[in-house]
Amino acid sequence: MFKKFQKWSATSMSVTLALGLITGMSALPVHAESSGNTDHGISKVTATFYGDTKGSKGFTWYTSKLSTKSTVQVIKKTASEADFTSALTFEGTSSPSTNSPEELVHKAVATGLQADTAYYYRVGDAARGIWSETGTFQTAPKSGEFTFIDLADTQAKSEDEAILSSQTLEKALQTVGNAQFVVHNGDIVDTGTKEEQWDWLLGHSQKSLLNTTIVPSAGNHEDENYAFYDHFNINQPAGSATKTGAYYSFDYSNAHFIVLNSNEDSEKYANFSEDQVEWLKKDAAAAKRAGAKWIIVNIHKGPYTTSNHATDSDIMDNNGVRNQIAPLMDKLDIDFVVQGHDHIYARTKPINQEGKATTPTKLKDTLNDKTIEYSVNPDGSIYVIPATAGPKVYYKNPSEKLGDKYYNLFELAEENHAAVYGPDPSDNRRPVRGQVQNFVGITVDENKLTAVTYEIDQNKNDAKPFIVDQFGIIKKY
């Protein structure tokens, strides 16, 4: 099986935001005209967790075939501008892009860094003197409170829609200003094998991506031909398959994160290989033994959602995610599950391994001048789907296959807020595209997880994010 190597890229691409355009770098690569002899610089830079989050960072970027060296430079952020004269330098590897053969994919890892420390970085080809714009990242702390952003389904099928998705990311980072990283629940682009769509999304998001770390899961729209794996430097288990995506885990402060790949398949598990499920069981158990206070799972095709996919066979059949994977969440002491795929906002009550909702004690508090309820020592896992950070939204699923028994599992299961703007002209089964986006800011400390959900409505509030939900979990030992 063809294996992808370590690479990474930074871009001189345009970054556009606000109501149309963001400040940017240079032009997006044009694949139809690009030849390997034309150097379009560095593009599609992403930073990921790789290994020990306190002391290392993974990077991926793209270049033309002229840039064969894969160099990362890292320096502590001690001034307002970066001076790479005495930077730590790391070399990675490159290989041809699977879906854009005229480009090289570069991957590299910076190691030996200090915990809870801010760094500048740049990626490029030291031999040719070609570098990306300067980015920043912060290594994980050894302990203590941290905040991250969760979003899903940026999934743009045009450049205009990619600009909209990039605006959501930019606004999320501005709104949740202390977020150390961004969790993406999959369907990053609409067709993963079309490199042009990665150019659009990662290009217009480049300014944001240069200044955060992304924790991506593979969606079903990037499930072919290494489309996901080419774009992110993932520390997957040795020997695991990567053609359809990747599964992996990492520790951050007192929490353990598990990212699943719901693009695999087996007779026993729809969407999952038996190897992955066995790895999940062992990984979660090891995290508990190591003292993780929280376990958080990122899965694209989640078991508990409220729109079109809630009645899909690979979700609700006997070997589906709801019947086979969901019971493991409670059994493995998973606290919180973030999902994608269904393009609607919903969150559940705690659900135990029998698939039943439990009723924890609730503690009320005030946050953002609003009441927030915390579930105290919940018996079961809580599931959230953060709607979409991109253009495509769904209606609530009215199927009799679900009914009151299913919807009673949910704390919140409203109709999509975009429904008020009418059906999409090209597909009246869905609300009109591009009107409403969502993201969630999540803060975790020793015994409390707090989630605040934001909405962006392009038709009101000057398209600025506003709070539509907030909730949390408290653990009392």
Automatic annotation (TrEMBL):
<dbReference type="GO" id="GO:0003993">
    <property type="term" value="F:acid phosphatase activity"/>
</dbReference>
<feature type="domain" description="Calcineurin-like phosphoesterase">
    <location>
        <begin position="167"/>
        <end position="345"/>
    </location>
</feature>
<keyword id="KW-0732">Signal</keyword>
<dbReference type="InterPro" id="IPR008963">
    <property type="entry name" value="Purple_acid_Pase-like_N"/>
</dbReference>
<feature type="domain" description="Purple acid phosphatase N-terminal">
    <location>
        <begin position="44"/>
        <end position="139"/>
    </location>
</feature>
<dbReference type="Pfam" id="PF16656">
    <property type="entry name" value="Pur_ac_phosph_N"/>
</dbReference>
<dbReference type="GO" id="GO:0046872">
    <property type="term" value="F:metal ion binding"/>
</dbReference>
<dbReference type="Pfam" id="PF00149">
    <property type="entry name" value="Metallophos"/>
</dbReference>
<dbReference type="InterPro" id="IPR015914">
    <property type="entry name" value="PAPs_N"/>
</dbReference>
<dbReference type="InterPro" id="IPR004843">
    <property type="entry name" value="Calcineurin-like_PHP"/>
</dbReference>
<dbReference type="InterPro" id="IPR029052">
    <property type="entry name" value="Metallo-depent_PP-like"/>
</dbReference>
<protein>
    <submittedName>
        <fullName>Metallophosphoesterase family protein</fullName>
    </submittedName>
</protein>
<feature type="signal peptide">
    <location>
        <begin position="1"/>
        <end position="32"/>
    </location>
</feature>
